[in-house]
């Protein structure tokens, strides 16, 4: 077990190096000169532009720029944005908001997705099963920005139940609607996944055996049906938490949330290599860790899986 | 069983880690307190520190304008009047100015505003070592070129600025410039206190000015708080207790906040595309949409075959201009939020006229257009496709689709759009002179003077990459009239000369004017009085009140 963990963690090193190099190269290859763009459509003072290029090492060849970034990153100095703000500050300002939103969406989709999925799966064919199926199909087929705008207009402006936008330093209530919007599509998938798993597992031989041994219905459901059904659900949720932490550009934009998604979008537009690479590396680490946790959870759910 | 426990622990740990990271954002709350008369204004995060001469975009320009008073200030319509200056006196040919300051002006740190507050600030801005983005505004002052070399310390001063005494200084210019007394109203010409030079970086985070408002706080990516400067005794009559600029991810979100009147936002100076049709009749907001100072044009490079500055080129340019039905585009695409162009400046520019000789060239006349094009074809036949390039990230698509369709229909020529994904790539292609057809141009003035629209965009001095003459238009008759206007004794005679210069442009059409974008915006219903927009297409922040 410990060996397995160590191996997985060591694997992260080449992954981090590879990603940073790749992303840095991609930002470098973006068309357009970020320094020229700083002057908008006003005349460019070449002497000033040269000063700025030198300050951000933009006058150096790509590979030199990359190694300067890497060298500084080892001392936790991720450089400055073009506005003169330390990259680390930008990320630490935006990330807590994204985590908050992501976790709320995660809890929302996990609780409601699994619950409705179980209800649906156990009572197949009942009217509420049909309703759940139709609603989940609707959520999957309607794009997030439509759900977002509609809910914002109805709940926020027409009925004034929830705050219209979240703004800076959002509270739990401010983020409730965005979290629902963000989690809605995944929730629908989880409902369908759980329902399908439960309805197929319930007909398995081992369930019949368990019942034949005289186990109570609750015990059978909890220990056999549910436990086996949740393996793919956990996989899905694990992937999803990584995606949620990456920020949700559309949801953040609709509800004026200053999270990672918006920051990434802005920094790509401005060609801020340091910021883009730092964010992507961070997200990648989160993804890798989430995957590791999911793999470990498999072992807990399925005794046949062992790590050595 | 052991594995299970471990997995659970791993999960618990990661959740705890995530939760603890959330903790940081709960402490500050930014809700509006009912009592104070604070205006919450729409903004984007400034792209530079809040240093006047390093600010060249609106995110920093809006707070900067309220924090710093310059020698002159402008009223809503762009008319200049002295603010910190007592007098700005030119010599006979407007190459030297003597500037006297009013007494009693103070920065918010208590230090007085002296002649040196200006001369040192301007020299700092002009000095290339300090990498100030608005440095080229000082290029007409003597000594500017010496401050563009490689081996500078950053403290060298402009040789054209001489301090006479605490409240007087003189400015020597490289050439006549009657617009100089207006130019000094631009933000980059703001005075700076002595404390700035000790630590420019700290100053950029917490500026100290002499304007109608005082800096209170800057919470990056969130908001900038300004409060009323009670010591201010300038031209503005401040009707509220402060302005807080809030950063929005999206203008639609901002519009929704204004609609809901929830105290989050009071005013914004744009209208999201999806509301341009409805905002004027929206009962939940106070709308504003009037003639503005931004002109939208497209430029056809003067080097383009068949479009050079000769008889054939002029005929073709006139034909294209006359084949465009501007009113239809304004009506159908812009929902009426613009005015058809009749000149090269704007209705908000002092000296504007809608009936200059040659303004007929900007009026829709399909049959005349065809006739002119045929005449040009008689000189030399045009075959090929005229392309129209624009940046696709700025909402220009429907306009250029319409222009191209009208040209195809009204002129019978082959035309096509060429969208370029981002503004950055688009400007790159323009500054590298890679455009092989017409391209989108537009101008938002830095200061309200015809000079800013004409000299910067169409003079020979601004061509070939030395300024914003992106089409490299060169006409010495135009240059001469502009120079005469620059040497004129007073603004009125200068404006007369600028009108004559424009008549040349209306004949040559180096760029083809389309329309003046309206200054349009909305305010929340809590704003009780004073909502309007000024010559910069920005809300009249100082005049707004919630009481």
UniProtKB/TrEMBL annotation, chain A:
It is a multi-pass membrane protein. Keywords: Cell membrane, Membrane, Transmembrane, Transmembrane helix, Transport. Signal peptide: none annotated. GO terms for cellular component: plasma membrane. It is found in: Cell membrane. It comes from the Bacteria. Residues 95-298 form the ABC transmembrane type-1 domain. Belongs to the binding-protein-dependent transport system permease family. This is ABC transporter permease. It comes from Bifidobacterium scaligerum. The lineage of its organism: Bacteria, Bacillati, Actinomycetota, Actinomycetes, Bifidobacteriales.
Automatic annotation (TrEMBL), chain B:
PANTHER family: ABC TRANSPORTER SUBSTRATE-BINDING PROTEIN, PERIPLASMIC BINDING COMPONENT OF ABC TRANSPORTER. It holds the Pfam family SBP_bac_5. InterPro entries: Peptide/Ni-bd, SBP_5, SBP_5_dom. Residues 1-28 form the signal peptide. It comes from the Bacteria. It comes from Bifidobacterium scaligerum. One of its GO terms (molecular function) is peptide transmembrane transporter activity. One of its GO terms (biological process) is peptide transport. Residues 82-462 form the Solute-binding protein family domain. Keywords: Signal. This is ABC transporter substrate-binding protein. The keyword Signal applies.
